[in-house]
Design a protein that fits this description.
By secondary structure, this protein is α/β, with parallel strands linked by helices. The chain folds into three domains: 80 residues, Arc Repressor Mutant, subunit A; 90 residues, D-Maltodextrin-Binding Protein, domain 2 (3-Layer(aba) Sandwich); 105 residues, Periplasmic binding protein-like II (D-Maltodextrin-Binding Protein, domain 2, 3-Layer(aba) Sandwich). The protein is built from ten helices and eleven strands. The strands form two sheets. Strands 3, 4, 5, 6, 7, 8, 9, 10 and 11 form a nine-stranded mixed sheet that branches. Strands 1-2 form a two-stranded antiparallel ribbon. β7, α7 and β8 form a beta-alpha-beta unit. The relative contact order is 0.15.
Length: 296
């Protein structure tokens, strides 16, 4: 069996979708489908039932998936142990997190971590899609929801809240909303609908407006939280943003503070195979100290 095709199969089986697997592998949907078809032809078995709503593994597909999961877990463990130091933590550490948290919070603290552990090299991948840690697409993840993959260790980091923000220039031009109903007449900025989302209720503000006006359409959509922040900073409109940003950016003005916003629980996640990795342990402990200092 071709190793590259097995890797593609494993990602497809984990994600349940050619499209999602293609995003994780940085391949087109058609390329992923061809790889799976070629693997099925070489084995003379069907590995998936194709449905309009996704993929379901056949009995043979489930058997192969169990095997590839064990293989990739062992490879991940071997790679981690081979690069681990017996004295000071050293080597590469690949971190993945959401675009918003990575861009607006984590990058502000990585420098201190590198000062403390100069023999660790950090790679940060910011994406709102979930990378496969068992496939070593990253060593650790900071996610805004509990992990869905099996064999992952999770540590709760914090519970964050959101608020509604604008800048004075925008409010001087369009007025300050006093109720949710007032937002119908405002330029509301939301997350895109047809993209990977950092958490399920990311468009909570628009949903609240639609409760009063079902056909309400946001003035501007952007596919990550950092883009929403920049749009607010330039005066495009009003957006629901992480509340801790108000303490970092004095230009932001909070409006409608009485509105109930979603709570978002953040988790530090890593594979069982990296439980003893000193790089992971020191980064986890550093992260816990820093989030404890931030009023999320």
């Amino acid at each position: 069996m071709d190793w590259d095709k097995l890797r593609v199969f494993h990602v497809v089986a984990e994600s349940g979708s050619f499209t999602h697997a293609g995003e994780l592998l940085e391949l087109s949907q058609s390329a992923v489908s061809r790889q799976i078809r070629a693997l099925e032809d070489s084995l003379h078995v069907a590995l998936f039932h194709r449905h309009a709503r996704g993929l379901i593994a056949t009995e043979q597909g489930e058997l192969l998936h169990r095997i590839t999961r064990e293989v990739f877990a062992k490879i991940s463990y071997a790679e981690a142990m081979l690069t681990e130091s017996t004295d000071r933590p050293r080597g590469p550490l690949r971190i993945t997190t959401t675009v918003g948290f990575g861009s607006m919070w984590l990058t502000g603290h990585v420098g201190e971590f590198l000062d403390n552990y100069p023999e660790i090299t950090v790679s940060l991948v910011v994406t709102d899609a979930e990378l496969d840690l068992t496939m070593r697409q990253a060593d650790v993840a900071i996610r805004m929801a509990p992990p869905r993959q099996p064999d992952l260790i999770q540590r709760h980091l914090f519970t964050g809240r959101f608020g509604v923000f604008a800048i004075p220039d925008y409010l001087n031009r369009f007025g300050t909303p006093r109720t949710i109903e007032d937002l119908v007449e405002h330029r509301v900025i939301t997350f895109g609908e047809q993209v990977s989302k950092p958490f399920e209720d990311i468009n909570w503000l628009a949903d609240k407006v639609r409760a009063f006006k079902p056909d309400f359409q946001p003035a501007f959509t952007v596919n990550n939280v950092y883009g929403s922040l920049r749009a607010v900073e330039t005066g495009i409109g009003i957006a629901g943003l992480p509340a801790f940003l108000a303490r970092q950016n004095p230009r932001l003005v909070r409006v409608l503070p009485e509105i109930e916003s979603p709570k978002v629980d953040a988790y530090f996640v890593y594979p069982e195979q990296l439980r003893q990795s000193r790089r992971v342990v020191v980064f986890r402990d550093f992260l816990l100290r820093k989030v404890a200092e931030t009023p999320f």
